[in-house]
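W.,

You were right to be curious about this one. When I first looked at the sequence I had no strong expectations either way, so I just let the prediction run and decided to look at it fresh. Below is the sequence, 416 residues in total, followed by the output.
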Amino acid sequence: MSIEFSNYRLGDIADVQTGPFGSQLHQKDYVDIGTPIITVEHLLDNRISHVNTPYVSDEDKERLSKYKLFKGDIVFSRVGSVDRRAYVREEENGWLFSGRCLRVRVKTQEVSSLYLSYYFGLESFKAYIRRIAVGATMPSINTQILSDIEVKVPPINVQHKLEDILDSIDEKIELNKKMNHTLEETAMTLYKHWFVDFGPFQDGEFVESDLGMIPIGWEVVGVSKFSNIIGGGTPKTSIEEYWGGEFPWISVKDLNSQVIMQTEKTVTKKGIKNSSTKLLPTFSTVISARGTIGNISITGVEMTMNQSCYAFSSPYDLDVFTYLSIKKSINNLIKQSHGSVFNTITKSTLNSLKFSYEHDHVKEFEEKVKPYYMQIRSNIIENNNLEDLRNYLLPKLLSGEVNIPEVEEAVGNVMQ
């Protein structure tokens, strides 16, 4: 089926608005409860992150009403990563956007804002906007630059078909992410119930310990009781045959989900053999120890890592217990630092951690919660495949290369 496209100047089909200037909103204006205001770090891939959003008061919300977001708006990064954009959904309706962002609001019935947001996700478009940004050290765009961009748009009925295909994939990805969040919250709640509050053991006797009262027969142990601590390393970057192999190589920025299945860089067997990096078993726990500290994930396959991370591998198959124990303890350490400098985790830090432990109960707990993380792993594998499918289809759908009914049927089968 041949699709006819029309070319539009963005400023002719949408209003482009910059966020409030620095003099209009200061960090001291943020409150604990109020209306969220998003900035660049909240712009994910066509989604808005709800994590660590600052809030403004009702009074400031009214004062800054010009910068309110409505469902269907598109938010761009104005500085830095100028190719980042996110679509405003019902959950963010009424939020505000900061001065580091630009808002695109479609003003014609002939163009769908969701279609337009997917168009902005094309790699060719991202490369173009990076190219036309101004500033060598800190790229930036403004309302004029964005307004002058030309976009290619098919008839509105075709736009809706294309966006429905792509959005169905994104909705499934989001559903899996929410399921994973719920599974992890449930696992951590169970961990605290068993090993902090000792809920299942309240009918028994308790004794005093370094961690307070614990059930009789339990002990206070270090991490070495149930897991081995492993350091990382980096093969020489100057030796090409050490890189681009079959083994994922974790750096701090790869620790961005509960279970890691892939990394930005990979290494070869020869790279592992000739460096201090180690091959970590599946379901090892990895934590960032420098830079952004405390990021923690489980390895979904055999992996290696750099020296900015530590790993934990349990010889007793206590993988999830290890992960949850380390995650809770490190989070507590970070909270206790109260804003003081805490920019490195050392082996000494890890060896100083203490845990309540009784092997049979720990083993029983592991059997209960391990399936949660097997499901999380499966969901992440599915999401990776769905993202690959979406990224493959995006340029083909938006250029008219593929048959829409055939793609609708194929994607429908994948979604089942």
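Here's what jumped out at me. The chain has two domains: 6-153, 184-373. And, maybe more interesting for your project: The radius of gyration is 25 Å.

Coffee later to discuss?

I.
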